[in-house]
């Protein structure tokens, strides 16, 4: 019997003008849809607070030992599902929901400036856009130096790159909660497929080297 794959997906609580945060609405819709019979999906709402992220993320990785953690956030500028390729360590000057910002303006004092996801976001983007998910996907290398970027960098650091970040537009601009949920499902299933193929390639290499 094959073991089930563990995936954690998070969305954010409301903040600023986003009194309903489409990221958490979309994640709840994804939870309803699921990721397939072989995937254990755990979802979590993340506070828009730097210090909460610093305590919550290590416990998520520790408790669930997931194959992949995906964070979903809202961007008022987004009109597509936007896949972020990397997270950044420095430049956090905006105050969070508690009116706090890190004194050092960075995530990890000893961390590298930028960490890339092990996933090839361009490949995920091409595949999903070539399918019939009914949404458009694009790729970005700047997650915005706020809680989204901060969360992503922290997760990439903890998971050694086995993390992804997806920005979604506000509800109705242009997608409904159902469309966002289906879009997340298509994107994450493609990411899991990519991880499986990468793992198979590694096993083949190990076999050939013996």
From TrEMBL:
Entry keywords, A to Z: Cytoplasm, Hydrolase, Protease, Thiol protease
Enzyme Commission numbers on file: 3.4.19.3
Chain's gene name: LOC114479470
One Gene Ontology term of the molecular function aspect: pyroglutamyl-peptidase activity
The keyword Cytoplasm is assigned to this record: yes
Gene source species: Gouania willdenowi
Protein name: Pyroglutamyl-peptidase I
Biological processes annotated in GO: proteolysis
Annotated active site: 148
GO cellular component, one term: cytosol
